Amino acid sequence: MKLQAVFWDFDGVILDSVHVKTKAFVRMFSKYGPKVEQAVLEYHLANGGISRFEKFRHYYNNLLNRPISDAELKLLGDEFSSLVMEEVLNAPFIPGVLTTLDDLWARGIPSFVVSGTPEEEVRHIVKERQLSRYFLEVCGSPRKKVEIITDILVRKGYDASKCVFLGDALTDYEAARESGVYFIGIINGETCSFPAGTHTLKSIELKEWTC
């Protein structure tokens, strides 16, 4: 099959940076005690791929039992960014990423970043890591991943059955299923299991799709 496009999650798929975000969430909520800290960790690991702001709302509403204002959300987001940025900018690539991106670029197969990270932030990281040339578009929150993928499919006129989404979380799997694109799960050791029968890889390899 001739691929028309490849959609990429970012943390845990392009950069080995999931653990950086995990540490930041735990650190930010450690002051509320070990039970809250453990609940934050478990929710984060079970809900990879969703916006940090959705997670903050969940933590405040369900763990701290109090509402959170938009102003507080922004402050938390800024704190989170300051905690993770330097480490993310220095995180290693997932094995096979650069070779695969080079191959796709050489073959004229467009790639798109579809991340739960705020769009401005993930675009900055892509630029700083000198990855911009590989991606036709770099997209992030607040839009949900299924919205981003569906929008690109419609605007570009792609056949969903000829597109692939590489992700490391169940939310990525669900976004692929809802948008109709083929899903490949990347196993990075920190995420929950995908449904039985899911195509999974420990390193990025798409030669069977691009030959």
Automatic annotation (TrEMBL):
Pathway assignment: Organic acid metabolism; glycolate biosynthesis; glycolate from 2-phosphoglycolate: step 1/1
CDD domains hit by this protein: HAD_like
GO annotation, biological process: DNA repair
Coiled coil start-end: none
InterPro entries per record: HAD-like_hydrolase_sf, HAD-like_sf, HAD_2, HAD_sf, PGP-like_dom2
Lineage: Bacteria, Pseudomonadati, Thermodesulfobacteriota, Desulfuromonadia, Geobacterales
One GO molecular-function entry: phosphoglycolate phosphatase activity
Pfam families: HAD_2
Highest taxon, organism lineage: Bacteria
Enzyme Commission number(s) from the entry: 3.1.3.18
Family, per entry: Belongs to the HAD-like hydrolase superfamily. CbbY/CbbZ/Gph/YieH family.
GO cellular component: cytosol
Reactions mediated catalytically: 2-phosphoglycolate + H2O = glycolate + phosphate
Protein name: phosphoglycolate phosphatase
